[in-house]
Amino acid sequence: MPGTHHHIELSIPITSDQHELAIALLSMEGIEYFQEEDRKLLAYIPEAEWSEEKETAVKLALAALPGGTPTISTEFMADRNWNAEWEANLKPIEISDRFIIVQKKGGPAPKPGQIQIEINPKMSFGTGYHATTRLMLRQMEDLGLENEKIMDIGTGTGVLAIAARKLGNTSPILAFDNSSWAAENAVENIAENNAGDIQIELLDAEEDLAVNLRDGYTLILANINKNVIDRILPVIRANAPGATVLLSGILVYDEPWLKKLLKRLDCEAVRTIYEDEWLSCLVRTA
């Protein structure tokens, strides 16, 4: 139905100690939405993207788990059911002494000096529950963002653009996603946080990037995945050579690949931080 966002729920019977690896493997297949339970991992993919080819790719990815590919069951999940279940399970999450992410309808009072961001995700990526979001926010805390002209690629919930505003950025921000649901959700979250002058667009990270980079962006935020980073970093280097790039969505064991890519593009990793199996890297021209 037009305007609806149905999903397929994948139920993967694995123990909690395998969740991080499974999430990492599935993230490489473009799956971004997960819910962790005691004896299984739930993953969600838009119904329109589910196919026999996608199912085969998922099974091949999970074959890297200890014990091989688990038995995967699938269930159709209607839009209204997903929103209710997801939002019911979200809890406030403290990113650092500087940031806490809460839902609109509740959460503890922030500590003195702590920045509170209200996020109601509705299936968009960027709730604070994933290590890559937390890594990006922790990196941003230590950057002087006041005068940066920021582009947020794959904005999801809009959390990074909102955080930039709350950290004192005053320049226009372009935040975009290739998911209409994410773009709609980002607009809602920006309004809830009174974070003005953030332009949300429905754009493709690869097809629409070069022309937009010509507008003089000085800081590029890209919490996406390795395959997309591999394709867009050369485009950023060619069209915005002076821009700083903050990356995440890269697994720790892919750091050698990243170093080779940066060397080829005459860039350097200024600061890299880690959480679990993920890293975030601040990149500048060498």
UniProtKB/TrEMBL annotation:
Subcellular location: Cytoplasm
Gene Ontology molecular functions: protein-lysine N-methyltransferase activity
GO cellular component term, pick one: cytoplasm
One of the GO biological process terms: methylation
Catalytic activity as recorded in UniProt: L-lysyl-[protein] + 3 S-adenosyl-L-methionine = N(6),N(6),N(6)-trimethyl-L-lysyl-[protein] + 3 S-adenosyl-L-homocysteine + 3 H(+)
InterPro entries: Ribosomal_L11_MeTrfase_PrmA, Ribosomal_PrmA_MeTrfase, SAM-dependent_MTases_sf
Enzyme class: transferase
Entry annotated with the keyword Chaperone: no
Record: residues binding S-adenosyl-L-methionine: 133, 154, 177, 223
Keyword Ribonucleoprotein: yes
Domain of life: Bacteria
EC number from the UniProt entry: 2.1.1.-
Keywords from the named record: Cytoplasm, Methyltransferase, Ribonucleoprotein, Ribosomal protein, S-adenosyl-L-methionine, Transferase
Functional description taken from the UniProt entry: Methylates ribosomal protein L11.
UniProt similarity note: Belongs to the methyltransferase superfamily. PrmA family.
Name the record gives this protein: Ribosomal protein L11 methyltransferase
